[in-house]
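Task card 7
Instruction: Convert sequence to structure tokens.
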Amino acid sequence: NMLNLQEIADIPGPTFTFNHNLPPHPPYVFDRDGNRLVGASYDFVGIPTWRQTDLYVDELIYLNKRLEETLDYILERSEVQPIIVIMADHGTRSTFSLVDPYHTPSDLRIHEGTAILHAFYLPDHCKSAPYPTITPVNSFRAIFDSCFGTDFGLLPDKTFWGSEID
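Output:
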């Protein structure tokens, strides 16, 4: 719940918060104004579910609006510049097809499934942490080394594709 996330700025002292949100992800349940969709399919898997791009975009519009409000609130109320990382766990899957199975994916499928939102808000002294080709394996390593003086170092920025069951 993003309203609960806003309360983080009011907690005294340093905090580490991990929040995993399902939207925008099937089943799509919000319209662009945050209303619950009436009669929405609650299927979580299957190619047709991922291809509901109009529902995906509407839910994304709502989520972006709420995320902006939440981030503005946290930034306004934080006494110390916070470190904020926003990272998706996978990309969209609207181009997936039944003839492109996981064990032999096309280049398009790999690109779409692994391209993610990966955004950082960092205090001024940490600005060197992210770089254009950073992958999730190095997000926290780079932040810890840049912001806290640790010496984790970086791992190779590689993306791996694993087989799943459709």
